Amino acid sequence: MFTGIIESIGSIRALTPKGGDVRVYVETGKLDLSDVKLGDSIAVNGVCLTAVELPGNGFAADVSRETLDCTAMNDLKSGSPVNLEKALTPTTRLGGHLVSGHVDGVGEVVARTENARAVEFRIRAPKDLAKYIAHKGSITVDGTSLTVNAVDGAEFLLTIIPHTLSETIMASYQPGRRVNLEVDLLARYLERLLLGDKAAEPGSKNREPSNITESFLAQNGYLKS
């Protein structure tokens, strides 16, 4: 588990094909690796990876075909900057929100607008994720915990303050860039919970079309009428 508060900007040193998938070598910059052991988890652009080598100035991790197919990891190359966060501990301050490091889909930056000292990004999510994205809710973009400021269909708006721009890779975002998205864990679990006994039936999937409406939620005590 992670918090979505980026600890360091690292860079990709190498991506090496290995037995059909890829081993990635990450230089970790200012990230403190003194308490990291082989087998520990580190999020790279929001993707939870397992450290299999610790050469001293970074770590290596194996990236499966599943991860390559379901995230924007395929867009990385040697020299690419990446957001890094170590897995949280029982004493970690939860400054963002609970993040699993399991990417739900790949979005696309469709617009960038300067707004005083902040920058606004409009991002288009895959259509099957739109129902999980709520105004003033939480979303993780390339591992960064962020607040959704507006929603329009499958597109949502983020307002990024200067500190976040300087401490993450978001300052480099331009229209057309693909980004890893992880929706709020609570939204996914709530949908599954509301399926009730139907969740045990064959063919019941987390992302199949839902009959849950605002009136259904109000009738069942989730919204005030």
TrEMBL record:
**Lumazine-binding domain boundaries:** 1-97, 98-194
Q: Which keywords appear in this protein's UniProt record, sorted alphabetically?
A: Repeat, Riboflavin biosynthesis, Transferase
**A single GO molecular function, which one?**
riboflavin synthase activity
Q: What class of enzyme is it?
A: transferase
Q: Which InterPro entries match?
A: ATP_synth_asu-like_sf (IPR023366), Lumazine-bd (IPR001783), Lumazine-bd_dom (IPR026017), Riboflavin_synthase-like_b-brl (IPR017938)
Tell me the function of this protein: Catalyzes the dismutation of two molecules of 6,7-dimethyl-8-ribityllumazine, resulting in the formation of riboflavin and 5-amino-6-(D-ribitylamino)uracil.
The subunit field of the Swiss-Prot or TrEMBL record says: Homotrimer.
Q: What is this protein called?
A: Riboflavin synthase
The scientific name of the source species is Pseudomonas frederiksbergensis
